C-alpha cells in the first residue's frame, strides 16, 4: 500500500543534503566549537557558516541568530528573556491562538503576577490590529503573535502588528516556526524584534532551532554555563545538527518561490475536491491569508482523532486538533477562540503538504478522506439505531 505523509506541520523528513552534511561534520569536524585548537576552529567555522545560512533565510545579520534546541526553546527565550529583566510583574500581550510554546509560558508568568492580555481573533483566526492598539498599556513590555497559525494556517498581519509595537516602544516577538521557509520573511523591513524558527519544519534535523534577536534587544538567558551563543544560550552547540539546519535553510530559501506556489496549487486542489462533503467545514483564513502548504477542516459529527486513525489505516498521515487529557478529549483551544462549537472543535483535522506531495497524492487523499467520513457516519448512525 502506497503511503502518503501529510503531516509536515508536525515534522518534515530530513532532506538528504542535510543528512550528508551532518555525516560529514560528525566524521571530520566534530570538535567543540569553543575550543581554541584546530579541531575547535574547524567546528566553529562549520557552525558560523550554518548561522549565515539560517540568517539568509530571513535576511538577517548572522550575529543576530541564536541557536537553540528548537522552536519551543526559542519562544521561551523570547518571553522569559524579556520578563526576567523586571523585578516587578509587567504586562504581556499574546494572541488567543498561540502555540503552546507561547501560551504555556504566558500562563506561568500570569501565575507569578504578570498581567496577560490575549487578543481575540475573528472566525478565520486572525487578529485585528485595532485590538492590539486598544490592549496596549503603559506597562506593556512585550507582544507575541504567531506568524502562521499551526492548526488553521492563518497568516497574521505581522507587519501591521509589529509596527504598532515599534511606534509604542514595545518589543514584538513572532513565532515563525510554521511560516519560515514557506513564505518570504525579511527582518530588515519587517519591524519585528524577536523571531523564532525551527529546523525540523524545513527539512532539517530535529533538536535545533533559532531565535532572531534584533541588536537593540537585551535578553536574560534561561541557562547559565559556558556563555555560548553570545551568553544567551549556554551549552556546547550540536555542530552537526546546526550544519544540517543551515543546509536546509539555504535550500528552503532557494526553492521558496517555486515550491510555495506549487504547494498552494495542491492545497487549493484539495480544498476543491473536498468542497462537496456535507458538514466538512474548512477552518482558517482564505487562501490568500493562509500558509501555502496548509489545509484544515472540522466536522461536528465525527471526532477528528477517529478520522486520523481511519486515514492512517489507509496509509495516509494527517493530524487532529484535539488532544487527550486525563482520558478525556480536549477540543482545540484555537477553534474555540475562533468561535467554533465544542463539537466542531473536537472534529478538527489538519493536512500539511510537503516537498514529496504530488497531485496523485492529493487525489487519493481526498478519496480516502471522503470514504473515512462516510464510514464514520455509518458507524455513528448504526450506534444510534442500536
SSE layout and pairing:
Layout: E1 4-5, H1 16-28, H2 38-57, E2 65-68, H3 71-83, E3 91-95, H4 100-111, E4 115-119, H5 129-135, E5 140-144, H6 158-167, E6 171-175, E7 194-198, E8 209-213, H7 239-273, E9 280-282, E10 294-299, H8 304-313, E11 316-317, E12 319-320, E13 323-325, E14 328-330, H9 333-337, H10 342-346, E15 348-352, H11 359-385
Parallel strand pairs: 1-11, 3-4, 3-5, 5-6, 6-7
Antiparallel strand pairs: 2-8, 7-8, 9-10, 10-15, 12-15, 13-14
Q: Describe it for me?
A:
By secondary structure, the chain is α/β, with parallel strands linked by helices. The chain is built from eleven helices and 15 strands. The protein has helices spanning about 15-30, 40-55, 70-85, 100-110, 130-135, 160-165, 240-275, 305-315, 335, 340-345, 360-385; strands at about 5, 65-70, 90-95, 115-120, 140-145, 170-175, 195-200, 210-215, 280, 295-300, 315, 320, 325, 330, 350. The longest helix has about 35 residues, at about 240-275. The chain is globular. Mean pLDDT is about 95; it is low at about 380-385.
Brief digest:
This protein has 386 residues and is an alpha/beta fold. It is 41% helix and 16% strand.
The secondary-structure element order is EHHEHEHEHEHEEEHEEHEEEEHHEH
Computed over alpha carbons, the radius of gyration is 22 Å
What is the helix tally? 11
| Nearest-integer average pLDDT | 94
Shape: globular
Strand residue content? 15-25%
Strand ordering within the main sheet:
2-8-7-6-5-3-4
Major sheet size, sense and barrel closure: 7 strands, mixed
Going by helix content, strand content and strand pairing, the class is: alpha/beta
- Uncertain ranges: 381-386
Strand elements, count: 15
From the N-terminal CA to the C-terminal CA, the straight-line distance is 34 Å
Helix content: 40-55%
